[in-house]
Amino acid sequence: MEIDYEPRFLDEVVLRAAGARPEGRLFYRERERVYAIGDPEERARAFDRLNVAWCERLGLARSLADAVAEQPLVAGGVARCGVGRPPDPRDAGAELLVRPPEPGEPPAAARVLRLLLPPEMLLAPDTLWPFLRRELQHVADMLDPRFGYEPKLPPVMGGPAHERLLRDRYRVAWDATVDGRLVRAGRLPPGARAEREAEFCRTFAMLGDAAPAAFARLFDDPTPTHAALVGFVTAATRGAGRASGACALCGFPTADLEPDPTALPVEALAEIAADFPQWRPADGCCRQCADLYRTLPMSRANEAALPGIR
To answer: Which domain holds residue 291?
Structure first.
């Protein structure tokens, strides 16, 4: 995999590293000579070449290359990795960018790994290694056909807040499986389990005393799948909705539940299944959602009968 660093990111990393090394004096002498170049564009290119050379000399890229080598699916499935600073430290992480491949082009050539991390992290192995291993395991899952990753979660009613809640819960469940595999592979310390379990139990507090057992099933699963994680998260969310008197579809609290969702028209049940594949009539729903799906097929039929606008 080709690894590229954003110039400003690399400049800051090399400056930080050189200042703490005995050979740093040589680096600063070479840097002063670059300042003497008159042409601004040539001077900028010279700084880039200097930083790339000293990045290699100081071994700053070795950790990332070694971490990628631990994940064959990433090493062989992605053509290039771009490394830079996140706009906010909280946005640190990895992102897999995929474009449609050109005719005859291998799939890896159409994939780019974007890795965002604070420059100082590259100089802190105790922080860097857990970060890289976790992020790259997520990317490996995205590339693994057995995991079956899908970039979008099932649609939910209730607006952006409910969609964000589902994404957050999915992330925590996925993180539990990632840490479990890394701990068993010896790539994270055993203490990572307790930290991850605490986060899981906070996020899935609606499970009550059953939360630790649910966490253990995910953490100990050697072959998790995207579909299983989505099923777990949506079931936990529906259960929370029933316990709080909320509609299992829109998520809003209500005391006005549909008396018998099994009696909804077949067309309405099909529409609900298309939007909420995990939903079952036994999960219930509010009257407003039931009425919405009762009338949806009729609304579509009426719309189709309207004359076209030319």
So the answer is: 246-310
